[in-house]
Amino acid sequence: MGYGIAPKSFEYHGICKSMFCNSMEALNRLKNCTVVLGNLHVLLLEKTRREHFTNVSFPKLKEITGFLVVYRVRGLENLGQLFPNLARIRGAQLLYNYALIVYDMPNLKEIGLYSLLKIDRGGVIIWTVSQACFIDTVDWKSIAPGSRHVLSVDRHAHCYIHCTCSRNALTNHCWNNRKCQRYLEGPEGEKCKSQCLGCRKTNSSDCSVCRHYTFRGQCVSECPNGTVVLPVNEYCLSNDECNKLDGWSWNNTCIFECPLYYVKEKTANGFTCRWCKNCTETCGSQFIRSIETIQAARRCVYINGSLTIHISSIPEIVQELRTFLSVVQEVSDYIVIYGSIAITSLDFLSSLKRIGGRNLQKGKYSLVIYDMRNLQTLFLSNVTENLKVDHGTVNFYGNPMLCASQIEKVQMKFPTQPNEIDVPQGMNGYSGGCKEVSLGLQVRVLNETSALVMFSPIADTDVHYSLLYVKLPQSVHETFVPETCSESEWFAVDVPPVFSQLGMVQLSSLHPASSYAICIETYDPIHRNLARSTILSFKTLVGKPEPPFISELVASSSDVVVIRWVDHKNYRSHISHYELDVNLIDIHSKDILARDHCVNKDESYYEIDFTRHAVVLKPPPSYEKGCESMCGVLSSVTEGAMTEEHFEVCNKYDLECGLETNIRSNKSFGKYVQSLAIDIKGPRNDFQIGGLAPFRDYKFKLRACTEHSCSRSARGAVRTLRKHGADIPSITFIEANLTGYVTVYWKPPLLTNGPILSYTIEVLPSIILNDFNNLLPQVWCISNNTTSLTVKSEKAMKYIIRVCTTTLGSSKSCTGWKKIYVTIKRIPTWWWTGILFGVILYFVSTLVGWLYKNRRNYIDMIPLLDNRLSYGNETEPPSFMLTDLAPIYSIPLRDTHLD
């Protein structure tokens, strides 16, 4: 691995060009770099020791647009020590198919890049790191999906340290025994704002790197006016910043070279790109054997020489070929393609017009294709039709899936036709069904799950028939045959002997709204010939769609809930609209009164439980993938929300979930939603519902609809957040007397966090009104259906009183303390007047009686006695009494005053 003299580095506003660090001085030039615009080489520091890296760190570096290679750096024990905040390696340029290369590091103990979240392109190679641990404890596939990784794992005794980050084995990965691996999506995905690609757990707005555009260190959804985009990392730059980086502004972008068919031209203000029809780039011979060499040929329109392609197993290689070789129009010599098992078609040469054959391979061939195990088709039909070949012929062998019919289409374009040595018989198409048979295959779709296959059998009654069919993946664009390597499984149905002129086979248990490929194979046991009919495609009927999958149900505030969903893959193109029903899960007052909330208090009932306010589910494989990082909804309100695995009850227990009655209504209580029926026009995957009551449980039913029918309901329930300042009652009347009785009247709160459970009255007999904070009040608790209470407190002349409410969302919300003074009741003055009059009347009556009595005692005359008294019986009452002399008065009862 040889390198020249280190080029001079350049830094401007945190943007650095490619860095070549082969000394500590050169390494320290990274101190102000936020992003390396290109590649970062840290290598050949073979005289450094451990102490040289003490306190050496570059925390500002977050992103590298190319690749990172660390090679032969002695004394460095932890790569994460140098780059603690490196979050993204884009892999715009690769080194031998890899974006992260750590090689020949004798003292390295661990990789430790615990902030690394994403490698956009390219794989990882970690090799010859004899002392390093924690290499296989990192899930590299989640960081760099779809790429090949080469890891050197030396099993040492000190490396047997297990990750303790998660109970889920799929996400239990770590960088060391202190740092767990971070994820962008899935059960452990970071919950960040929508503009972030990774963030701090303590601050969801502090982005590791930006998902879309970066402007002066801030993440934005689009670049502001007056700026241009730096395409390689989507930075928003001013024209001056672009010029400082040796670029120029063109078509709202900052570029360093003009695109194909344009030439750089100087102007008064700098440079621009001018269209040039005949300005095409000519390259020398190209040997394509890695992603790096593919990218090097990205501007080659004319290849002055030969084109050779030999690529080992690289998962993403076909897409790379289509991206970078689609501009090739002419090859002056010859094309050789061999030993590339990932290539199934030559459609990546979509612009090829001429093969010159100026110099021929082995002096004879201008197109050579061999040892291509999975190659099934050659060029696109329009390329084949318009292809011109000046000299040479073709050479095909060792291609088991390439049928002779495909070769015949191409060889007709060559001036020299091949012989049996050039295209050996039996050396191509021997593993596929290359021999075609005409059976008049037809398919009639009967309903959503079944189809009738009809064909015309051949005359030979010894021939056996097999029906092959497969459910096609979504958005499949390539030819699909039984030999194709894919996750889709072909099913075979043995057809009974056919003696009539029309064979029929009915297929059942098909998936609705799905695409299928179908063919019939014939086998002649006498001649041992295998033949296959043409492959037909058909689609089953849509019928009633599958329900959408609610992936997120999140309360974003006290009155707003956000719902997100994904559609079933088979039905997403057929969905026209959605039906959403929202219903309050009310708690009846009888159920509240059934429990004594004054006695049975559970303090944990009022603790914050984020899982009640957010439901996050991982979609099953048959549904579309949920949005990355949960779209940022959860970050601000549901830090503790857990992502759960979906469990389908209907499928598990074979329940009739499709039989449901949906009664839709729009009702409210007060100013809040009690029930709501919404029709949502598709395509759409999220909706926000407002006007909900605080801290109440709402259930959601979502249905996906086609033009003709709707699915069964996807269901979910979530509780809105608490409303601050709610649950406070208002006192309307207070009274206290000398005996210690206190009476309180109050009104219930106008706004509550859920239903009211109970009231609490607190009374504090106050001697010193200004010092009652440290005193414990007397407390009475009553049910929620009472709004007044008279209580017996300690005798005092002054009281401090407040009323508190216990609701579903608050254990205690109180009014302010109210002061009340004891009222001394005064007797009205007319009472005293009446009493005084009565007393005076009593004394006057007594005096008159006394005077009258004295007048009778001093009379001069002695009354005559009745003789009958002397002789009468002493036991008999006298016939005459003094009362007989007094007048008699009577008051009718109706005139008396009884009140």
UniProtKB/TrEMBL annotation:
Q: Please give the GO cellular component terms listed in this UniProt entry.
A: membrane
Provide the protein's localization: Membrane
Q: Which Gene Ontology terms cover its molecular function?
A: ATP binding; transmembrane receptor protein tyrosine kinase activity
Catalytic activity of the protein: L-tyrosyl-[protein] + ATP = O-phospho-L-tyrosyl-[protein] + ADP + H(+)
Residues covered by the Fibronectin type-III domain: 728-827
Enumerate the transmembrane spans. 830-852
What InterPro entries does the record tag this protein with?
Answer: FN3_dom, FN3_sf, Furin-like_Cys-rich_dom, Furin_repeat, Growth_fac_rcpt_cys_sf, Ig-like_fold, Rcpt_L-dom, Rcpt_L-dom_sf
Which SUPFAM superfamilies does this entry report, sorted A to Z?
Fibronectin type III, Growth factor receptor domain, L domain-like
Which CDD domains is this protein grouped with? Answer: FN3 (cd00063), FU (cd00064)
Name the EC number(s). Answer: 2.7.10.1
Q: How does it sit in the membrane?
A: Single-pass type I membrane protein
Keywords, comma-separated and alphabetical:
ATP-binding, Glycoprotein, Kinase, Membrane, Nucleotide-binding, Phosphoprotein, Receptor, Transferase, Transmembrane, Transmembrane helix, Tyrosine-protein kinase
One family from Pfam that matches here is: Recep_L_domain
Protein known as: receptor protein-tyrosine kinase
Species whose genome carries this gene: Parnassius mnemosyne (clouded apollo)
Q: What is the lineage of its organism?
A: Eukaryota, Metazoa, Ecdysozoa, Arthropoda, Hexapoda
